[in-house]
Amino acid sequence: MLKDYQMQLLGFLEQLEMEISNLYKLFAEQFPGHQDLWAEMSREELQHAEYVRTLKAFALSGHVTFDEKMTKTYTIRSIIDDIRDKYKKTENHQYSVVNALSFSLSLEQSIIEHKFYNYFSSNDPGAVLLINNIREETSAHESQVKKALDEEKKRTTVR
Hints:
Blueprint: H1 4-30, H2 35-61, E1 65-66, H3 73-91, H4 97-114, E2 120-121, H5 125-158
Antiparallel strand pairs: 1-2
């Protein structure tokens, strides 16, 4: 059985994935040079939010254990607040493509470093697949964004 604060954490994880998706969708609109990258990542982040909803249902039914270690709700909320800040800056054209790529890289690395998706464990093959998908896609996002950032930096310094 999940405790109230664990339910809150899972809700914030789902919200985090939704906020990232929204930000990447905006980046795709604002920075067409990397539109395909951000559009694809936005879709995958939406899928991650769905995965979190499913994992929450698995946890409620006892098929998944959720041990959040030392993570507190304010940790995830502060990341969400930062995403919302970057969204507003991007809407107001106060954010460059290099800023967007740098923040995206930092965001994906933060999710990996906080190990948010290592808090789930299960023997259920379906749940394990979801957990692994999120981990693998987050790692892929990190690599893709790093490559795009490196290319963008080279492109802008050549000018």
